[in-house]
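[Q] Does anyone have a clean structure-token version of this?
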Amino acid sequence: MINLIIIWCLIILFILQPGIAHDGAVAGAQLFMHALLPYLLPYIILTQWLLKIPTESRSPKSWKRYVKAYILGSFGGFPVGAVTVTEMVKNGELSRRESGYLLAACHAPGPMFILGFVGTELFGNTMSGWKLLAAIHIANIIFFLLALLLMRNSQTKRETPKQKNNAKTSSSPLLDSIRDSTNVIILVATTVIFFSALGNVLTSSISSAFTVDLGITKTLLLAIFEMTSGVQSATDHFFTSPVFPFLIAAIISMNGLSIHMQVFVIAKTADTPLLPYLISRLWSIITVPFILYLIL
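[A] Here you go.
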């Protein structure tokens, strides 16, 4: 019943404010084309291709599989970590419990996004982008090591990954990787555009109903719904503020519902537990701005 009420309220808001919804959707589409697609698509295809190449045997050492998941997942951008972990589960390289911990640890924005879009275009300084990227990965590596410790001391070591049937191995891994990457890109584009439009409509509605600061309201709502739109709004309204870089770090660490929906949809295909992922988001929101403060 509550879901129906929320849905109908949002439908009514979109009908009453078609222009604002349109502007939000256009802004989301432009951000996707400019800030996400060029940085995300090549890495998703290459990661998928690498994971689909048949191997002679699976590595018997757990830490090698975990490092592989971290390297491929953490440096590809959202939601490449989820794609990597679920693909490794389907390949028989990870168990369900392992995938839950690794989904949480192997989740970071791509270096090209941080250095190219955030560092160069928002901060106006590539070195600041490098420092933010370092803060994100320091926090992630600490969480990754904690996850390894938990997996070692839990029943994970008694749960063996299910081996994939080699008879079903694809003879065209590149073509399959392009096909699967298309599905991921469509998912990313859909969530980014939808939540950007939703954030714009809600910002307008709240600003009309209450006396609030438009910059703060818009940045907060967009950060909750769509990360890329949130950092763009923060740049528009808080660029001269001394807290600006830490605000950007917090927004990127929070990710927004758009990215969370992408991860949830992808993780569902492998029945991956999501509680560690939710805990890791809280960890990042707290630690990444603090580490960035120490680095700066």
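[Q] Thanks! Anything notable?
[A] The chain has a mean pLDDT of 85.
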